[in-house]
Amino acid sequence: MRFLNVAGVCFAGLASIASAGVVPAERVNAVEKRATSTSTRVPDAACTNGPLTRSCWKNGYSVATDFDQKFPTGGATVTYNLEITNGTCNPDGNGPRLCLLFNGQFPGPTIRATWGDNLVINVKNSMKDNGTSIHWHGVRQYHSPGSDGVNGLTECPIAPGDSKTYSFQVTQF
Question: How far apart are the C-alpha atoms of 134 and 122, rounded to whole Å?
Answer without folding.
Answer: 11
